[in-house]
Amino acid sequence: MNDDKLRLGGMALRNGLLVHGPTHWAAAVRTQDGEIKVASGRKPRLAPAGLARVPGLRGVAKLAEAMAVIPLVKRELPEAHLPMQDMRTLASMGAVSVTAHAIRRPGAARTAGREAAVALLSVAPALLALRRGDLAAWHGVEHKSIAAYEQDGEAEEAAKEHDRCGSHLVAPLLSTTVAGTVAARRAGLKGPVVDGAIALGSMAVAVEIFGWSERHSGTALARALRRPGYELQRVIGTREPDAEQLEVGRAAMEEILRVEGAAPAA
What we know:
Number of strands: 4
Number of helices: 9
Strand content: 5-15%
Helix content: 55-70%
Oligomer: single chain
Order of helices and strands: EEEEHHHHHHHHH
């Protein structure tokens, strides 16, 4: 990607696309009557600018700011359907919680195998959401639309897998969570505060691995670290979108470039 390009991120909605820019967000959806609706706004700042230079904290702060955009999107664009806005997905989240509790029943040894099973269960609702409906296709819209802007190409011709997809966080996040949980239990540490610290620390490490892989994308290690994420995108996470979905993606991209004051993609 050229240095003069905006660094954009995104989130697939169930009926459209949300795009994040450096200072603003933009979203476009297709309503039930076929109309494309667009909204945008300024992103909230939850952390001081200096935090962006602190390893371990910078990534978590950026993720928190991305999550803080979601209620703003729903307020400005009520027609937007969120990825987890589905009763079956919510039910699966409840089932995962019950199953995880059973695996971690009182008195059971906190082995790496048990913790790995719980960690894998934790991603099940997201995978279920991707396999139902058009969410995987909208995820493809996200990747293809952003890649087309970055590469000065056409969204129809861009790959549906992307280097900066959140799927690249899954493997390092799960592995560090398992390692941290087992180490804490063996040290006799437990409770919600410990679990929260493990979750936060695991996310911080995963984001740093993500960033390192992007900065050193040409190395064999970076390619190996990204392989699980690519396979997750290829097999489950993305699907080729149709022309109408790509039209919504173009609307979202045009809006984010407008509010960020950037030149439109070629």
